[in-house]
Amino acid sequence: MPVPASRSVVGRTLLRDRAYEVLRDAIVDGTLAPGEQLREAELQEWIGVSRTPIREALMRLERSGLVVTRPGRSTTVVPLDDARVHDAVPVVAAMHALAARLAAPKLTSAQLERMRAANEEFADALARGDVDAALAADDVLHDVVIEAAANAALRDTLEQYSPLLRRAERARFRDPAATTVLSSDLHDQLIDALAAGDAERAAIAALATWESL
């Protein structure tokens, strides 16, 4: 028979996504520390969802390398693993290069302006030493390109591996001197290439931006 149109299916999807996003962000920003046990009952109470969305979220987090589950025992936040981070960097860089190549002929002037504004906030946040705000602005800038690229496989790949890199960045940037490695100049090069509609130059700039991490 046809798949029934059910309101509960939509609700469950939203709850699953909410649970995943809350847990992902808490691991990335250090609220949930490496080695911390994640107990389903406590997570249900904290996030306000049932067991099923929690379990689905934990499965996604395990695929991203943020938690490890030992069947019948426990789920814990994994320590940062340099090898996994190093493996993820070229994958994420390649996906952003592809996004830039796909987006170059599509970006509107309004989208380019959003990128410029985000880069200004990025530079200002770094000058203030506000790493959280800098990374948030960085996300806004690159999300414009990903949105314009409109490629579901690309987006899914980035969703899996980007949190691992963000977590490593935040850990590294606890040292204020480390923020000097970030530069809005690479963003400017990317934006200029996209504004010119130069897909190859934009891809090279995007690749350089992420490989610089």
Oligomer: single chain
Beta-strand percent range:
under 5%
Structural class, from helix and strand content?
A: mainly alpha
**Counted beta strands:** 2
| Cα end-to-end separation | 51 Å
Q: Quote the average pLDDT.
A: 87
CA-atom Rg in angstroms: 19 Å
The top-level CATH class of the largest domain is: Mainly Alpha
Query: Given the C-alpha coordinates, what overall shape results?
Result: elongated
Q: What's the helix-strand series?
A: HHHEEHHHHHH
Spatial strand sequence of the major β-sheet? 1-2
CATH superfamily of the largest domain: GntR ligand-binding domain-like
Polypeptide structure, described:
This protein is mainly α. It has two domains: about 5-75, Orthogonal Bundle (Arc Repressor Mutant, subunit A); about 80-210, GntR ligand-binding domain-like (Four Helix Bundle (Hemerythrin (Met), subunit A), Up-down Bundle). The chain contains nine helices and two strands, in the order αααββαααααα. It has helices at about 5-30, 40-45, 50-65, 80-105, 110-130, 130-150, 150-170, 185-195, 200-210, and strands spanning about 65-70, 75. A two-stranded antiparallel sheet has the order 1-2. Helix 1 (about 5-30) packs parallel to helix 7 and helix 8 (about 185-195) runs antiparallel to helix 9 (about 200-210). The radius of gyration is 19 Å and the shape is elongated.
Could you outline the blueprint of secondary structure elements for this entry?
Layout: H1 7-28, H2 40-47, H3 51-63, E1 67-70, E2 74-77, H4 82-103, H5 109-128, H6 131-149, H7 152-172, H8 184-195, H9 199-211
Antiparallel strand pairs: 1-2
Helix pairs in contact: 1-3, 1-7, 4-6, 4-7, 4-9, 5-6, 5-8, 6-7, 8-9
